[in-house]
Write a structure and sequence with these properties.
Chain lengths: 394, 154
């Protein structure tokens, strides 16, 4: 039931679009972005002339090659938009905080149709040399969260989250074989999705014999850098009649109480993901058992495990047991998770690919990987100091 | 546990090894330069006595102004760790061991660091470690080694 005092009920997800996604596509980030935007507009039944707001995650700033995608101004210019409002939103409650800011722009009445995109060409950006070798930090001096990490050689998110995974295994007694069930199940979804990057079946034996990236994370615990773009359209609820297949936002979760650092957490659930999930469930009468599909950030497998526990899909410390065997989150399982192949098999689109998949599932247009009768979807994105989540309904 | 006035951690000179170094700011400069006299310092509130990290201009526990650098023992325990196997950066070839260590004086104060003088397979959560500094010009990176390995003066 919509209540007018809820920001998220004054907005709708009116459309989503995804570009070609893959490894080293040889296309520009702007080219991919425009393809995603065109598809989102078509999905919504809108045209560029209807758009009066534009949001990017993360916007353009000095970062590793391929990370940022095109600046707002380039997209505005290419699409010929006339904007009441625009913003690049790098910082916030997880990557999906950018979508929340679009919701707030619409809910406040400041804009009617906000177009939002996340584009990456990290696969191409890393093609000619190791990643991070060209960080601008190395020239000007390290600041911010990375000040406490990078000088010691903790240069990759793999390093920061491997230590979360190590602590998780220590505290819960879980095994790598249990954890591997997530990657195996996720790949099963990817075999059903022609747009996924890796589609060959993955066995637990292959998982356990894969090379280590940073212990205890092996290759298949880490998502795959990709080239690709996702666009999302957020529209004012009163425009519903103009929209082709809108999806409701039942609740958002954006609370931040935990210390937002990569290394100051006190345990595997002492994290912003827990804060955000509690916030979300405080804003709805629906419960975890009502969720038909869950899209859980899997930049690293441990993050999806944390989301499973933070969101209440299983008890604290039980996520590894939940995913063990690769059955419960797989096609036909009692909680379908990352139904497009996630980021582990589908490509690293920083949560926006997961959001896209949730919307397509609720629209009933996911093709071979459609979860029959999906009416309620949970999307949680972020890890470490970041966390934000959505509950979407048909 | 108190910082022994006579105890100094070893300092290894690595001025010629180019690693990405922090920007020194009014809040953080003391931390990065602290190893110059072989002592690790963590910000501590003069009012409530709580340590805080990363440093901030006022106590995040009681709000008192002017928390200052306080020498600590340099002893810590491994809260978590990872053995990096992937060649990410040219200035630090694998394998190497990264850790989050918990300060002996106040275990909710964590430092990300690199462990040295230890075989990767011997590292475990709860392992006791002590600071050893690696000098890069004006910056002294606090690395950690198994306790007992560095307690002697160099």
């Amino acid at each position: 039931m919509d209540s007018p005092d809820r920001a998220e009920h004054r907005a709708l997800i009116s459309g989503v679009g995804k570009s070609q996604v893959g490894r080293r596509l040889g296309r520009s980030d702007l080219d991919l972005t425009l393809e995603a935007c065109d598809r989102a507009l078509a999905d919504a039944g809108l045209t560029a002339a209807d758009i009066d707001g534009l949001v990017a995650w993360p916007g353009e700033w000095p970062a590793a090659r391929g990370f940022c995608g095109p600046a707002l101004g380039r997209v505005k210019d290419a699409l010929g938009l006339e904007l009441a409002w625009h913003a690049a939103v790098q910082d916030g409650p997880g990557q999906l905080g950018a979508i929340m800011s679009a919701v707030m722009a619409v809910a406040s009445g400041y804009a009617r149709h906000v177009l939002l995109y996340r584009t990456t060409s990290e696969a191409s950006g890393q093609a000619d040399g190791g990643r991070d070798t060209t960080s601008p930090f190395d020239v000007v001096g390290v600041t911010g969260l990375q000040e406490w990490l990078r000088p010691f050689g903790a240069v990759s998110a793999a390093h920061w989250l491997a230590q979360l995974a190590q602590r998780y295994l220590y505290e819960t007694g879980a095994t790598r074989e249990q954890v591997g069930g997530l990657a195996v199940a996720t790949r099963r979804w990817a075999t059903l999705n022609p747009d996924a990057v890796y589609r060959a079946p993955l066995s637990i034996e292959e998982y356990l014999s894969a090379r280590m990236i940073s212990t205890p994370l092996c290759l298949y615990d880490c998502d795959v850098p990709a080239d690709g773009s996702v666009a999302v359209l957020v529209s004012a609820a009163p425009t519903r009649a103009d929209l082709r297949a809108p999806v409701r936002i039942e609740a958002m979760g954006s609370r931040l109480a935990a210390r937002p650092f990569w290394d100051q957490w006190g345990g595997p659930l002492d994290l912003p993901q827990r804060d955000a999930a509690r916030h979300l469930w405080s804003r709805t009468s629906l419960r975890p058992a009502d969720v038909d599909v869950a899209q859980l950030y899997d930049g690293f497998s441990i993050l999806a495990l944390v989301w499973l526990e933070a969101a209440g899909f299983c008890d604290p410390g039980q996520a590894a047991a939940f995913v063990a065997g690769g059955k419960r989150t797989a096609p036909g399982g009692d909680l379908p998770v990352n139904t497009g192949g996630g980021q582990l098999s589908g490509g690293r689109l920083h949560g926006f690919g997961l959001f896209h998949e949730a919307v397509v599932q609720l629209q009933g247009e996911a093709g071979e990987h459609q979860v029959t009768g999906a009416e309620t979807a949970f999307v949680g994105a972020g890890g470490g100091p970041l966390g934000g989540c959505f509950l979407l309904t048909r | 546990m108190t910082a022994d006035a006579g105890l100094r951690a070893p300092v290894r000179i690595a001025d010629d090894v180019r690693v990405p170094l922090p920007q020194l700011t009014a809040d953080t400069e003391f931390f990065w330069r602290s190893g110059a006299d072989g002592r690790l310092r963590i910000q501590r509130c003069g009012q409530c006595g709580r340590y805080a990290h990363p440093p901030v201009p006022r106590c995040r526990n009681c709000g008192a102004s002017g928390p200052g650098p306080a020498p600590v023992s340099g002893q810590a325990s491994v809260f978590s760790f990872t053995v990096n196997c992937q060649p990410f950066v040219h200035w630090l070839p694998p394998p190497y061991v990264l850790a989050i260590v918990a300060l002996a004086e106040q275990p909710d104060v964590h430092l990300t660091t690199r462990l040295v003088d230890v075989a990767a397979e011997e590292v475990h959560i709860g392992m006791l470690v002590s600071v050893v500094f690696e000098r890069h010009g004006e910056v002294y990176l606090p690395l950690f080694a198994p306790e007992g390995e560095t307690n002697g003066l160099t």
